[in-house]
């Protein structure tokens, strides 16, 4: 569980963006990274608003600073699963499994309460779905201003 929770810091998101760049193109990868930034900012805004402390006991090999609610790792994982679901075909279940495992790992290593993970999952799904809805408008804007 510890490697999974550590991978969620930055590495896994950049790796997914690199694969998207290779297989879906530059605009899709840039949009995905923009969506991750929006999710991260929204979650950190909520953390600042609610200011729930992290669990004091049970931390295993991982330390986390700042507030607990909601889980940003979980929000990013569920936002990714939601956004990539339509384009990942039969392997979309792997993104959902990864998102669920990310949430479980955050509880297991002792840096989040279950409510933090549930709220992060909900936020990620909502923002990932919003990303899906706004993607066509993004493509139209990019294509309108593209200079080849």
Automatic annotation (TrEMBL):
Transmembrane segments: 6-23, 30-52, 64-84, 93-111, 117-138
GO MF: sphingosine-1-phosphate phosphatase activity
Pfam families noted in UniProt: PAP2
Xref: Gene3D superfamilies: Phosphatidic acid phosphatase type 2/haloperoxidase
Superkingdom of origin organism: Archaea
PANTHER family: AT30094P (PTHR14969:SF13), SPHINGOSINE-1-PHOSPHATE PHOSPHOHYDROLASE (PTHR14969)
Protein's UniProt name: Phosphatidic acid phosphatase type 2/haloperoxidase domain-containing protein
InterPro entries in the cross-refs: PAP2/HPO, PAP2/HPO_sf
Domain Phosphatidic acid phosphatase type 2/haloperoxidase: 29-132
Keyword terms: Membrane, Transmembrane, Transmembrane helix
SUPFAM superfamilies found in the cross-reference section: Acid phosphatase/Vanadium-dependent haloperoxidase
């Amino acid at each position: 569980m510890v490697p999974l929770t550590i991978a969620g810091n930055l590495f896994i998101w950049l790796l997914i963006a690199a694969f998207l760049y290779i297989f879906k193109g530059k605009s899709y990868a840039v949009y995905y990274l923009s969506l991750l930034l929006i999710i991260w900012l929204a979650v950190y805004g909520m953390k600042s608003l609610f200011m729930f402390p992290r669990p004091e006991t049970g931390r295993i090999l991982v330390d986390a600073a700042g507030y607990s609610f909601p889980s940003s790792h979980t929000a990013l994982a569920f936002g990714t699963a939601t956004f990539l679901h339509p384009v990942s075909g039969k392997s979309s279940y792997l993104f959902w499994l990864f998102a669920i495992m990310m949430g479980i790992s955050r509880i297991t290593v002792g840096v989040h309460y279950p409510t933090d993970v549930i709220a992060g999952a909900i936020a990620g799904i909502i923002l990932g779905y919003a990303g899906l809805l706004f993607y066509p408008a993004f493509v139209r804007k990019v294509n309108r201003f593209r200079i080849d």
